[in-house]
Amino acid sequence: MPKKQHETSRTAVERCPLIPNTNVANTLRRPQVKAVLDRLFAAAAHDDETPDWLRPGLSWETATAQERADASEATYMPISRKGGELLYILVRARRPKTVVEFGTSYGISAIYLVAAIADNGIGHVVSTELNGAKVLAARANLEEARLAECVTILLGDARTTLKDIPGPIDFVLLDGWKDLCLPLLRSLESRLAVGALVVADDINLPSLSGYLDYVRDPSNGYVSVAFPVEDGMEISCWTGERGVR
Ligand SMILES: C[S@@+](CC[C@H](N)C(=O)[O-])C[C@H]1O[C@@H](n2cnc3c(N)ncnc32)[C@H](O)[C@@H]1O
């Protein structure tokens, strides 16, 4: 059978297996996906972001990343619907083969990323989460949305779990603890594809200021803009060339 005109031999090999059985051009409109997103956003509307510390005396400043994750087990902290749609648009347009997400939580942002991958017919999402209960729930949510085939959710600290993800990485969503976004980006940088997009959520938080200073300094190799969606997302394109102002 002849290939469709837009389909290269590479995409034919690596296409997401979800695609052949659907005629729906926008996976976000599929009833199963809408139902899961509606349920998750409704639950997230009740978020109480006060950490439930497992031992006394802890604070956000003194706790480890794991302790913060476990104290936030009941909290969704998701991207907004508009933020999710922005991610969907960016992944559709960029057509990444490898997408990395830092901070899965209950899988809301992962659903948007994987929906776009499914509609592109190529690519895979690797997402990582420190809290074990959230990993199980996120996997179940992606199953229920019938999107589990194009995503791997890793349990553990992103600083370890993402170490062996081979490059080139074409798209990154940074949505874990904000003080780890910059070190995490630095650890992925040598594996970023030229033209990779890196998106960070919640740029209005002071704890992201070091990250923003870095990606907005052209000598670090990014072209970066703030996008005004809900709490703000920073979209940065890796040029592959440092030291140019
Ligand atoms: C803001 S929430 C993520 C929300 C998710 N992206 C969404 O839109 O549904 C941040 C999540 O990152 C996780 N996290 C924080 N630091 C992490 C780390 N070092 N490694 C893996 N996961 C981490 C937290 O446990 C928390 O569930």
Task: Describe this protein's structure.
The chain has a domain at 31-35 and 73-238: Rossmann fold (3-Layer(aba) Sandwich), CATH 3.40.50.150. The chain has 9 helices and 7 strands; from the N terminus they run ααααβαβαβαβαβαββ. The chain is α/β, with parallel strands linked by helices. The relative contact order is 0.13. Mean pLDDT is 91; it is low at 1-15. 36% of the residues lie in helices and 18% in strands. Helix 8 (181-188) links the parallel strand 4 and strand 5 (192-201). The chain has a 7-stranded mixed β-sheet with strand order 3-2-1-4-5-7-6, with helices on both faces. It is globular and about 45 Å long. The chain binds S-adenosylmethionine. The site of S-adenosylmethionine (SAM) has 23 residues, from helix 3, helix 5, strand 2 and helix 7.
> Helix-strand pattern, N to C?
HHHHEHEHEHEHEHEE
- Beta-strand share of residues: 15-25%
User: Helix- and strand-based class?
Assistant: alpha/beta
Count of distinct strands: 7
For the termini, the CA-CA separation is 50 Å
Q: Helix content range of the residues, please?
A: 25-40%
Give the strand order, joined by hyphens, for the main sheet. 3-2-1-4-5-7-6
Shape: globular
Q: Which molecules other than protein and nucleic acid are bound? A: S-adenosylmethionine
Mean pLDDT: 91
- CATH C-level name of one domain: Alpha Beta
CATH superfamily annotation of one domain: Vaccinia Virus protein VP39
Uncertain segments are 1-15
Main beta sheet = 7 strands, mixed
Which architecture name of one domain does CATH use?
3-Layer(aba) Sandwich
Radius of gyration: 18 Å
CATH topology description of one domain: Rossmann fold
The count of helical stretches stands at 9
